[in-house]
Amino acid sequence: MQAVLAGRDTLAIMPTGGGKSLCFQLPALCRPGLTLVISPLIALMRDQVRALQELGVAAGALTSGNTEAETAEVFAALDSGRLKLLYMAPERISAGTASLLRRAACGLIAVDEAHCVSQWGHDFRPDYLRIGELRRALGVPLAAFTATADAETRAEIVTRLFGDAPPETFLRGFDRPNIHLAFAVKNRPRAQIEAFAGARRGQSGIVYCATRAKTETLARALCEAGHRAVAYHGGMDPAERRVVEGQFQQQDGLIVVATIAFGMGVDKPDIRWVAHADLPKSIEGYYQEIGRAGRDGAPADTLTLYGPDDIRLRRAQIDEGLAPPERKEADHGRLNALLGLAEATGCRRQMLLGYFGEEAGPCGHCDLCDRPARLFDGTTAVRKALSAALRTGESFGAGHLIDILTGNATDKVRQRGHDRLPTFAVGKEMSRNAWSAVFRQMMGHDLIRPDAARHGALRMTEAARPILRGEAAITLREDTVDAARATTRAEARALVSDEDAPLLSALKARRRALAEAAGVPAYVIFTDRTLIEMAERRPATLDEMAGISGVGATKLDRYGAIFLEAITGAEPAPMHPARRRLAGRSAADLHDRLAEAHLRLMRGADGTGKMQSLSAGQIAKVAEQRPADMAAMERLLGPTRAERFGPAFLEILQNI
Fold first, then answer.
1. Residue numbers of the chain with a pLDDT score lower than 50
2. What's the distance, CA 184 to chain centroid?
3. Are residues 212 and 230 in the same domain?
4. Cα(first)–Cα(last) distance of the chain, in Å?
5. Where is 505: in which H helix or E strand?
6. Which domain holds residue 115?
7. Average per-residue pLDDT for the chain
């Protein structure tokens, strides 16, 4: 924030929900002129602008979703110099943009979701490439922010946006300790997702799917199970997508079943869970998508389902793509990192943070910390599996190889003479399920890969050779389908105690009514985290309400009395606006003591003098400025009133 405020070029990689927006919004208010914010999606911009306006900040957006009146209002604010933050999509950057921004005295460009500028990033947007030209045309500092960028992506961001002069770079922790991580092997995945959602009924959530068709079928299944769920994917009409985005932002407890098209535009801080019905494409994509949950800092849960078919699909997508060989190899590496996380034998958060270059101990807050995996030395089993694949010419999938290993002489096995191989029945001590788990984990460790050109036949990778030759060992998990199913039944963690739950529900109902009346998302009024703190601390006065995180001066003025009434059951006593501005500050108590003295002295020390009084604003000024002597008191109150009230006020001030 200090770097941005000082006008230095800045690149910050910070976790989702870690305060990236504040790092350019607050400097924008402190710096002269306008700050331009480049942001990727209309829904994201509109939500941020609404939230800023609710806080009393002069912000606007120029998007294709604006009405004529909204656009006219933004241009009027630009012409008058009132606007402090202007949001714009990269697609809106044109030849005339630089001239417009010069007239508006633009002094800073902030780029949100900066990984979109990189070909290596998972959300590449070619329009982001125009930002560097705009910055050079304006000659102003630039601050870029993203939640996920590995070394390659960071290097390209620097080249594209900053040119030859490297920015001041901040790489902050990727840990989101409030998010619980869990993976499970697919076993009737629709039922698994329904069970996970059922344990979190009434909470907002996202289910990510690999295909458009699956979003629609799964959304219908969740609706049939009694949930409020809607589908979202890139094949929908833009107007339909905007409706879903609006519903999700404004309604509590809605589930969106989506492809990754529903991603960066999600700026809803009270999403309580994210589930993946299919394996994501990469570890960066996984981190970005689970990062939609719990942005308010309150507890959130995640579940990722995966199986051999997912691994085959993701490998095939990479191999059949048009990317150059080095990019394909890098993409396989990113997928390997995610598969390693899925097949982890220890703390998942420790492994996830390790990928991003952070060292951490076991978190005690993921499924494998909750219930440690049962491990075994899988070296012999893996060598048997590799031998079976090699002796059959690396021409078959896992099902046929398992038949050979378990001694199941099917017609296919006998026709090819595979019942006479040395590896036939060498693994009959293990069940088919156990062998399926071994093959899946071998794919997860990238010891074998499905060959798309040979209908998914498994071929050995170079990484497997040391194990085959007896030069390396490998540890596997004794996971079973039953264990995977149990993982999905884990209950949602309660946001508050049973004692505070009814009050939290009442506060949410009041928030919902206010949001609907104002036509804004519920979190714009107050986030879940703020309501949770209200329910737990139960403030009894506006001063105590001002001490709740998320209750600033503007929101205290607008909503403080409304929520205080819900907590105490009684309407709070009226408070003068000048006094309310001091609520929660040290000056508040001082103001009240000064006000008591003022009331006592209005007719003089003996109660018989001529009536004199001070305004609430004057008393507030004394409480804030704390004059040290009579001369300073006279400057604030005037000679006559200072003579009446000054000595008593100074005595109070000197004794605080």
1. 481-489
2. 22
3. yes
4. 34
5. helix 501-518
6. 2-171
7. 88
